[in-house]
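Sample pair:
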Amino acid sequence: MGSPFTIIFYAGDSVQAELLSKKCFNLVDSFVLIFSDYIDSSELSRLSATSGKDSVVNISPAMFDILSQSKLAFEKSGGAFDITIGPLSKFWRKLRKQKQFPSAEAVQAAKKLIGFDKIILDTIHKKAMLTQQGMQLDLGGIAQGYIAQKVIDFLSAQQINQALVNVSGDIVMSNAPPGSAGWNVGVNVPESTDDLLPRTLLMQNKAVTTSGDAYQFMEHNGKKYSHIIDPRTGYGVTSQRNVTAIANDGTTADWMATACSIVSIKKAKKMAEQLGAEVLIAEIKKGKLAFHSTKGFKNYWKQTVQ
């Protein structure tokens, strides 16, 4: 899905490690062929192509699962996370490449094509229908964490319990590496592609995702518009934030990092607490770095040895 994918795990011998790594990447490829919106023949692309045609489509168990989890994410985030954002994300992706800023009318025209209420899920027969012509689903804010979690689950089923999967910053891990209290995870400084906060996270059996606009954004009239789009407005968010979400599974951590980049800080903290998750929001306000976090986030900072 256009992102680097790294798997680290500890096995009994190199032959077993090589065999399992191949199986892991085969599993990843199988999910990409389901979830990618860059591949015309993917299940996601084929489903989007049926939009507005009154077509009830049989979907795979994986597709049904991620659509169900996406619906939950939509509800929990108050509509801030919405996988029907495809028309807007493709619209802005093209404009970023062309370095053009759209008219308000063009944004509103794309916005009319989105809305989770336009997805009908048949939970009994595992079917789906997209009711709005021109709809395009975009799983970019949830599928990477989902796939990373499935790889960790697969390795655990093979009795490989010390592992970490990193999909371009969407990280899922099982037990700590041998002789360690946990995996060390760095957090980017807002607006920076290279600088990390001086402290690192130490964790195991969790998922963590950091989301921000350091890599993809557009500037217009002195404002920086992130690649993270607020489906409620149709525009990229303009708050200069890095959001780090810690959850019990990769799917939740992934979509939460996106949603918490859009909603207010108060709403982000409340949402995390309701999900049994933690969130750290680092933002630049008037040129100064400020931090906001849920109470339990501090427990993951690596303690400095005195």
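The chain is about 35% helix and 20% strand.
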